[in-house]
């Protein structure tokens, strides 16, 4: 082999046109590799930029196509069940995990209903602690069984249930993603079959919830696997199902987020059993009654029917007459339940062979052939490169199924620092004087209420860090300008509207500024924003209208307001980042004051914050309860207040425009402001409630 290569090189060197051809070959090789390197880098960058725009939605056609083709298996046709008989030990384990409690309520609610559709998330093997097998066998139902653990899913297939099955997981959110799962297995031989499934029933996504210790975890070995997850709405859309009679949700964490992600205006779920542990409290209290969760479900239209000691909540749709009658007839709301409620394209190197072995040809002919082959090789490689570039979009789309970029992903932080964060400028302020009419508008929009509390809280504090989301022009109804000018603070001002942001730059505030938006979740994405323009040519009125800039794809965007009649609207795409991304990019772990006015999604923003690593001392939040009737949306939301209390915040004040003032309860410097006798606004709202 080596001697043949040497002969080829000698032939090439003896050719009269060898020098020119050699240079030509080097130029082709150099340009080819440069092009390939450029496209590889370009594709990698494009993948990240595509992910920044956000993951595909739950009902994106690409998501549904992948789900139908690869993750949904239909019910078997005319084949008998493969079920095993249970013994006394099995019945003991069933009682241990609360199966009998759930089964009793399922029988009571659906004893008279023939046919129906169920969804069981956390189906295990399809028999042991199954909450839907009785409905299928005895009442002729069908449905969907979802199981992330590979071993359990193989047994689920073997059982031949009369339902669709899926080896996947439910994503606790509105977008598909890939997740790492932790499965448990028994460490001792000789445990009975039921005990084996008791271990497998604890399969869970590997995240902060996995740190919750239990007896089973300490006596088991663990294995890990990657599983593709989809929102529950994706499964239902793929199966063309709009009504679920019974939902069993046991996914070992994230149940609240799953329910929150459901489009309940288009999907009806009549009854559900949810195993919900309150991760906002200490481990010892995690299984106790979660009043915030129950209040949230009530506002969605669900009545808590019962709750057991294993944190299994039974909910029924209040407006469902049939279920209400069944619950009443069975007397399901017993004293026991009520008491518990309190307690890369691999480019295969292209190889070729020349025809140099043919001694008949002249030396120049040989060189021409070599050059021709190189040109052909370059053409083939170019086609491969172009193909890679052309198909990069579809590959990227599939990659996006694995989930969006995380809030503190290095690429996210680099992009944020390089393109979306402007440092404090030098030079004097460009502020305008406010007249009497300006102050009236300030009062109407609730600025004076927030400003009064900001002055009370931080009158003695020199220096601090604020974040104002919805900064507008940096002066009109600014909740942080006084802190910056009078108390020497700095911070971050975020504004999605382009016109407002240009004015914000012109003001020369002593803070970082960003033309972007806060994402109501844990991942960056692109959003479409609606801005209002006043038809009345009054300088201050411009900002009154611009202050209503909102994302169009939120429940809040559907709320009619009086300004809409007097305005024209424009639309733009804005890049959004989680609040945690901004803070990580600026190396900030303590925020003294957060002003959150983003016209919808405030609760989700707060929920996404890693408050174990970030401290926010006080915050002003404009929050509308979009779950309530229009007349009650600005009233005090008890579920929101209770949620904030669980996070360690006390409601200091609330005005008639739904501006909530919260302070961190354990902050000694803010304690004097917590005296309710000095706060007539809070007292008035509490008496009204």
- Class per helix and strand makeup: alpha/beta
The CATH topology of the largest domain = Rossmann fold
In whole angstroms, the N-to-C terminal distance is 91 Å
Number of strands: 22
CATH superfamily of the largest domain: Vaccinia Virus protein VP39
Contiguous helical run count: 25
Strand content: 15-25%
pLDDT under 50 segments (min length 5)? 3-14, 208-213, 332-336, 342-362, 380-397, 555-560, 680-689
Relative helix content: 40-55%
**Average of the residue pLDDT scores:** 77
- Strand order in the sheet with the most strands: 3-2-1-8-9-11-10
Whole-angstrom Rg: 31 Å
Number of self-contained structural domains: 3
Organism: Penaeus vannamei
InterPro entries: EGF_Rcpt_Signaling_Reg, FkbM_mtfrase, SAM-dependent_MTases_sf
Keywords: Membrane, Transmembrane, Transmembrane helix
Protein name: Putative Star-like protein
């Amino acid at each position: 082999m080596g001697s043949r290569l040497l002969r080829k090189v000698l032939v090439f060197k003896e050719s009269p046109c060898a020098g020119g051809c050699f240079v030509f070959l080097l130029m082709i090789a150099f340009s080819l590799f440069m092009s390939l390197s450029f496209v590889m880098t370009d594709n990698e960058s494009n993948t990240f930029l595509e992910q920044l725009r956000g993951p595909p939605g739950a009902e994106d056609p690409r998501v549904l196509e992948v789900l139908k083709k690869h993750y949904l298996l239909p019910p078997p046709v005319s084949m008998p069940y493969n079920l095993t008989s249970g013994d006394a030990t099995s019945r003991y384990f069933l009682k241990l995990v609360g199966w009998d409690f759930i089964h009793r309520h399922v029988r009571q609610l659906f004893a008279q209903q023939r046919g129906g559709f169920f969804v069981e998330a956390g189906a295990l093997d399809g028999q042991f602690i199954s909450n839907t097998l009785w409905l299928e066998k005895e009442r002729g139902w069908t449905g969907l069984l979802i199981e992330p653990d590979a071993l359990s899913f193989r047994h689920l297939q073997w059982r031949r249930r009369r339902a669709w099955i899926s080896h996947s997981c439910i994503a606790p959110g509105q977008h598909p993603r890939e997740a790492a799962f932790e499965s448990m297995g028994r460490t001792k031989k000789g445990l009975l079959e039921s005990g084996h499934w008791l271990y497998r029933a604890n399969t869970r996504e590997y995240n902060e919830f996995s740190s919750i210790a239990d007896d089973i975890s300490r006596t088991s070995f663990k294995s890990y696997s990657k599983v593709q997850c989809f929102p529950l709405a994706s499964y239902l859309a793929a199966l063309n199902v709009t009504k679920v009679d019974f939902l069993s949700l046991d996914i070992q964490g994230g149940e609240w987020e799953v329910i929150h992600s459901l489009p309940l205006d288009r999907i009806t779920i009549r009854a559900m059993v949810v195993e919900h542990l309150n991760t906002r409290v200490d481990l010892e209290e995690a299984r106790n009654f979660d009043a915030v969760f129950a209040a949230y479900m009530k506002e969605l239209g669900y009545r808590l029917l019962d709750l057991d000691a294993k944190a299994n909540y039974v909910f029924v749709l209040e407006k469902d007459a049939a279920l209400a009658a069944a619950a009443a007839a069975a007397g399901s709301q017993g004293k026991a339940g009520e008491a518990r409620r309190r307690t890369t394209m691999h480019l295969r190197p292209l190889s070729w062979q020349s025809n140099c072995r043919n001694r008949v040809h002249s030396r120049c002919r040989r060189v021409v052939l070599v050059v021709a082959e190189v040109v052909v090789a370059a053409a083939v490689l170019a086609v491969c490169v172009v193909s890679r570039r052309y198909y990069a979009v579809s590959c990227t789309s599939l990659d996006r199924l694995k989930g969006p970029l995380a809030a503190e992903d290095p690429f996210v932080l680099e992009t944020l620092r390089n393109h979306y964060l402007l440092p404090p400028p030098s030079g004097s302020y460009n502020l305008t004087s406010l007249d009497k009419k300006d102050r009236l508008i300030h009062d109407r929009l609730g600025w004076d209420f927030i400003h009064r509390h900001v002055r009370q809280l931080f009158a003695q504090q020199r220096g601090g860090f604020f974040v104002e989301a919805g900064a507008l022009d940096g002066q009109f109804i600014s909740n942080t300008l006084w802190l910056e000018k009078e108390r020497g603070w700095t911070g971050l001002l975020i504004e999605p509207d382009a016109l407002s942001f240009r004015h914000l730059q012109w003001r020369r505030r002593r803070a970082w500024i960003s033309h972007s938006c806060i994402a109501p979740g844990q991942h960056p994405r692109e959003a479409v924003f609606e801005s209002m323009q006043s038809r009345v040519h009054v300088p201050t009125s411009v900002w009154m209208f611009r202050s209503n800039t909102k994302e169009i794809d939120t429940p809040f965007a559907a709320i009619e307001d009086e300004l809409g009649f007097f305005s024209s609207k424009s639309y733009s795409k804005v890049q959004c980042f989680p609040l945690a991304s901004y803070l990580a990019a600026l190396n900030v772990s303590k925020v003294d004051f957060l002003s959150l006015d983003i016209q919808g999604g405030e609760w989700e923003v707060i929920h996404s914050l890693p408050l174990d690593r970030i401290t926010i001392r006080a915050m002003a939040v404009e929050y509308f309860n979009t779950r309530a009737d229009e007349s009650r949306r600005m009233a005090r939301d008890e579920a929101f207040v209770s949620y904030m209390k669980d996070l360690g915040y006390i409601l200091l004040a609330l005005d008639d425009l739904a501006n909530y003032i919260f302070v961190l309860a354990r902050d000694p410097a803010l304690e004097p402001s917590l005296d309710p006798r000095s706060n007539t606004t809070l007292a008035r709202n509490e008496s009204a409630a």
